Amino acid sequence: MTPQHPPMKSAITNLKARLDVLQNPYLKTLREGSFSREDFIETQIQFLFAVVFFSRPMMVLAGRMGRNEHRTALLENVFEEHGEGNLSVSHERTFLQLLERLGVNHNHIESRAEWPEVRAFNTVLAGVCMLDDLYTAQATLGIIEDLFSTISADIGHSILSRGWLGPDEIIHYATHETLDIEHAEGFYAPLYQAWQRHPRHAYQIQQGLELGAHIFLTMYEHLHRHRSRRWARPVKGPHSLADGWHLDG
Questions:
Q1: Which CATH number does the domain 6-18+36-225 belong to among 1.20.1440.20, 3.40.50.2300, 1.20.910.10, 1.10.10.60?
Q2: pLDDT in tens, the chain (249 residues)
Q3: How buried is residue 152: exposed, middle or buried, by Cβ count under 10 Å (0-12/13-18/19+)?
Q4: How is the chain split into domains, by residue range?
Q5: What is the pTM of this model?
Q6: What is d(CA 244, CA 110) in angstroms, rounded to the nearest whole number?
Q7: Per-residue DSSP letters for 11-43?
């Protein structure tokens, strides 16, 4: 982190220290070995439903941006989420490849019902990006990307240490360990000066940082709490009209 904008940088640093992300029960039990492979896979299927949705609120937020440079930064992020035009390396596809390497086939993924914890996460993101203050929405997305860098590194290392995959087989998490630092900075960049420009702006940004961290880490906590769920569904296709996605295209 550069010393260019210390107030907001300090707020982010303090928030992350207070959250102590690595002590989240999802990560802690996975790291310590008490998280079973079967339960982990079931929760990762649920996380897939968040991964495929994440770019949609970003696109909504980009459409609300008044300045081209701010809109462009968001659209570049969305473009990268979609593999920069090569859908075989989009975030959706790389996560599906990870699940395949863990032994999960597409039919099994299609058989699973979406959990309310994931739907709540997706719905909050959609709401904040569509209706809330722009600074709040940007900060919400930024802190999620920021935290996911730490989470990705920890999950990737845990998968490796548990012997579930080899070093060359871990996909998606290995990428996001570094990529999401850049993504987070893309969301943060327009906010640094705004934070210092007016206390109201700083408050809006702080609200977004707290909200994003809350919904993201709470989702992980609840995925862990309900890890023994095996909810099936009788139909295929999107989980909701907002989702609009399923494996058959």
A1: 1.20.910.10
A2: 444 557 999 999 999 999 999 999 999 999 999 999 999 999 999 999 998 888 888 888 988 887 776 677 777 766 566 545 555 555 677 889 899 999 999 899 999 999 999 999 999 999 999 999 999 999 999 999 999 989 999 999 999 999 999 988 887 675 544 555 667 787 888 899 999 999 999 999 999 999 999 999 999 999 999 999 999 999 888 888 777 665 654
A3: buried
A4: 6-18+36-225
A5: 0.88
A6: 14
A7: HHHHHHHHHTGGGSHHHHHHHHT-S-HHHHHHH
> Among positive and negative, which fits the CA dihedral 146, 69, 95, 177?
negative
Only one residue has tokens 């802690």, namely 28
- The C-alpha angle with vertex 127 and arms to 89 and 244, in degrees rounded to 5, equals 45
